[in-house]
Amino acid sequence: MASEDSRLLLLVDDEPAQARAISTIAQREGWRTAAVVDCEAALEKLGSEEGADIATVLFDTRLTGDKTCDFIRKVKAARPECVVLMLTASGAPLLAVEAMRAGASDYLVKPVVPERLANALQGTSGVTEIRDELQPLSEKLSPILEFDAMVGTDTQFRTALAKAATAARGHGHVLVEGESGTGKEMLMQAIQHSSSRSKAPFRLVNCEGQPHNTLESMLFGHEKGAFAGAFDRQEGALAHCDTGTLLLDGADTLPRDIQDRLAEVLDSAIVRPTGAAHGFKIDVRIIAACDRPLQYLVEDGEFSAALYEKLSATRIVMPPLRERAGDIPGLTRYFLAKIGEIEGMAHHSIADSGLSLLEAYDWPGNVRQLQNVLFRACVHEKREALTAHSFPHLNELLGDADRGESRARGLGVLLYQDDGNIRPLEDIEADIIRLAIGHYRGKMTEVARRLGIGRSTLYRKLHELGIDNAA
């Protein structure tokens, strides 16, 4: 495969404008690009001397039509180590599933979102940990908009949900912090959906990777002729969300001048589009998310203290998956059920060996990575149950390390201590109650009914066992 400093992307596309845009994004990510206009030329290029440097093939399915899977198989036959990415105008899950079974690694829906393409290219860099963070069909899973539908019994996680539920009933700005993949966007949308502004206008703006002028216009808007290329007036997201909610994802990547301008808008409640003579009053609530703790960026002078003060009226921290590993069995069951509902996918269970492997990994890509790894395994596994062999990348990463007995043994409860003796009944009972709370998504009446006890007994046990359901 091509070395890190000579990564070459073979682009199969006959649309010049799209090809230029993709090449520009690829160049920013450190890739060289070779472009061809049809599949025959692509296969010829792969067999050439220059083709030895090709690390990834990105092709538009419009050129392959109903022969998409045949083309993928030919590419993989010619260059088994080559990564294949699809570009499609349709997010049809069945096509994506069939393409992945033929050997494709990921797919992108047109028009290409720069960040999405950048992530896909980063995922082909040959770094095994990143390779598992591809996003094959994660967009196809129904978004969770209710707090009681979010899976997890971990104390930090339940505390974050409880804080979010309280914030949803208020009117102040909200800041959600946490590593990439921990569910920040999901939480932002749940807060908006549960708020008194749920019926009012809202918009999600992803700040990361946006060119400065584009981001400025997206947020504040501009007047016709405000700058070169401003052929029409554009309403900004702040104006669009008047009386509603603006969701800002990647707020920590905002350029400093835009931070200062946004702080002024929140302070005065007046927004003035670029090139406009006057501003106008707005009433907008901002729910912002960032991968890095803003407080440290403020201390380092990288983030506006005034904007941080405005956004952090309520600050919520989403814990990484490695700190809530006990939630892995519940999350796994939830994702497998959802994946089974996708067209072209079968319903899968997971065997103890597979669950042990999942629990042994530290998940740098967090919950999103777990979801995508499970999806990939379901695409390729023909048996009903996923086993350790269904996750070759994780096996490669973990090697022969002793994974011990699964904390769940397929049930979510560990029966034995490290010395081989049975765990105390109180500890097992606490695990079973936590499992039930996660399985029934915090619906305590259902938890009590399924456990065969009354609600008052359940709450007494929660108190005695020191379990914080945070519901």
Instruction: Kindly provide the name of the CATH class of the largest domain.
Output: Alpha Beta
How many alpha or pi helices? 21
**Spans of at least 5 consecutive residues with low confidence:** 126-134, 405-411
> How many structural domains are formed by the residues?
3
Q: Which range best describes the helical content: under 10%, 10-25%, 25-40%, 40-55%, 55-70% or over 70%?
A: 40-55%
Query: How many E strands?
Result: 16
Order of strands, widest sheet: 2-1-3-4-5
CATH superfamily of the largest domain: P-loop containing nucleotide triphosphate hydrolases
Structural class of the helix and strand makeup? alpha/beta
Radius of gyration: 25 Å
Distance between the termini: 50 Å
- Biggest sheet layout: 5 strands, parallel
Structure explained in plain terms:
This is DNA-binding transcriptional regulator NtrC. The modification 4-aspartylphosphate is found at residue 60. The protein is an alpha/beta fold. The chain folds into 3 domains: 4-126, Response regulator (Rossmann fold), CATH 3.40.50; 155-317, P-loop containing nucleotide triphosphate hydrolases (Rossmann fold); 321-465, Helicase, Ruva Protein, domain 3, CATH 1.10.8.60. The chain contains 21 helices and 16 strands. It has helices at residues 16-28, 39-46, 61-64, 68-78, 93-102, 114-122, 128-131, 155-168, 184-194, 212-220, 237-240, 256-268, 294-299, 305-311, 328-339, 352-360, 366-380, 392-398, 425-439, 444-451, 455-465; strands spanning 8-12, 32-36, 54-60, 83-88, 106-109, 174-177, 202-206, 221-222, 234-235, 245-249, 270-271, 280-281, 285-290, 314-317, 349-350, 385-386. A 5-stranded parallel sheet has the order 2-1-3-4-5, sandwiched between helices. A 5-stranded parallel sheet has the order 7-10-13-6-14. A two-stranded antiparallel ribbon has the order 8-9. Strand 11 (270-271) and strand 12 (280-281) form a beta hairpin. Helix 8 (155-168) runs parallel beside helix 9, helix 15 packs across helix 17 (366-380) and helix 19 (425-439) crosses helix 20. The longest helix is centred in the C-terminal third of the chain and has 15 residues, at 366-380. The chain is flat and about 70 Å long.
